[in-house]
Amino acid sequence: AIVHPVLDIQPDQLRTDANRAKSNLDAKQNDSDILAKLEKDGLKEPNFQKVIEGQISNALKPDNYRARLDWVSPEPGAGLIRDQPELIAPTELTAFPGRGGITIFSLDDNGERIIDTGAEAKNGNKLGRPGGVVGAAPGGAGGGNDNQKKETAEEKRRRLAEEERRKGIFAGNAAKPEEKKEDDAAPNAPPQGPFKEEVKGKRWVVITAVLDNEKLKKNYLMALKNEAIAYPNFKRVDVERQTLQSDGSWSEWAATEMDKNWAVLDNLPEYDEEFVPESKRIAALVDPLPFLKAGYWAGVHVAKLVPSEIINKKADAPPAGNNMPGGGMLMGGPGPMGGSPPGGGSVSRQQGGGKKMGGMGMGMGMGMEMGGGGPGAPGGGGPSDDMNFTKSDDPALMIRSLDFTIEPDHTYRFRIRIVVHNPNFEHTDVNPGVDVDSPNLSGPWSEPSPIVTVPADVVAYAQAPEQAERRDDLVNFQVVRWDPASGQTVIKNDTRGPGEIIGEYTSVQMPNSDGNGPKSERIDFNSRAIVLDTVGGRQKLPDIGVTRNNFEVPAMAMLVQPNGDVVIRTQALDRSDEVREDMELGYKQAIEDSGKKRERGGNDRMTGLNKGGKKKSGARGGSRQSPGGGASRQGGGSNSSQGS
After folding, report:
1. Are 590 and 294 in contact, with CB atoms under 8 Å apart?
2. Is the pTM above the cut of 0.90?
């Protein structure tokens, strides 16, 4: 203020300038002047209305501008970014109980097989293998067969690898074992037999299901972006069950005792005939079928997956490839085909419940299960997408699991899920959030199976009222007795009334599998069940003034079970009980078959088909059955009502 001169502006001058500006802002301008100015500057009327109307009449089609392929985000260097495949649950679950005598290797107190020192060397011609030792592993049960081929270097390498895997080295991320020298391998090689065999009576529930392989492969393709690797590497099937409790509620879901089941399945010297083709039977999804010396399989083959020519007529010889448990597909690697496990080989297990082939020689092919299919980390997988495992392009696959740990006179229901090798294990080319740390992935649980009841070892079924001169309270019972020692099931009818115990020690025709025909034996049929009261028999219609006809009331009996439970047995339910019917037909067939030695696939009848829940598929065997008869019919072995 001191150094600058004073502004030479007066207040009146400011007022005059402000008024002049206000008058300019408030002045009205004609529209014609504005348009003239715009046209002078080059802006003209675009006629928007006509342009829009023209575009509406000639609308653009979005499909004409759609990309031929979906947009993807390329990974620098190679491939496409991977996602996690969506696993699916098995469907069409069925469960059916059974009992019989299974040929199994004798085990010592440590669970090891017992060498049969007094037996001659076996020639490998087991029922599970067609003729001779084709595909037998060197050093197996053959041991003395002049026709056995000399072990090649490649076969030796594979045999040593199999022996190492039996020791558990290939489980998880263990290092791959180095090839051993011949001198080093001999002292540590497991004994090759021959091993002692015995027939053991076993109870079981067989669970079968169908897996939509076509849908699962599509999910893999969507996730992995590469059709060449869009195959699931199946590891095992998880099985859980619930038990019906005395108050009518179900127990919590609990895993079946896999170790006890594998103690049976890992020690089978021979296997029974398969009807489902190999391509639909992935070993990791299908438990092998033990050869039965007593009893018959029911519900172990899914009928929809069995070729019609096998269902319509029994083939003279087993279908190609049915000489192997679980299939034996060689999709992942070479190797001669085999059947019965050499040396009493087995389906051994890897840590975590996975299934791998051990002691099978080349029977299942080295590509079946090389510890999980992963490079550098057997049993774990890895980023190189090793495809050395069993693959199938069939749209549907069979699942079968056998549970030998069930208890008699108990009711169960089951659920299952598949477990696969994680295709993204240790991969880095994945989307955020994809699991790359877990070696295996578990699918969703299936819906529960139908309820299944395991019959008691001695059970009485009401069949019909029994007419007597002075009594009208008698009921004819069919008493079914299972012998746990031999695995044989026998049947005897017994007539009882109130106050009497059903069943007695009596003679019955006992079937056998040695071909010498049935023999009469005395068997204890005492069920320990006491009849409280009965209803049924022939009665007259009420008196209505006309001639009265008799009619028969179905038998009904109230019983006290050995454990104190009171149950109702009715003719209407017991006669149609599917488990009872299966046991009756099985006994009749066993008597008929006792005249010839039982052999794998030697029967001229189709048994063991599972119709997926259809009722009444016909009797077992020969001319008595409809085509594909002997089917499993889901349901329980008991229809009794439990009271107080």
Report:
1. yes
2. no
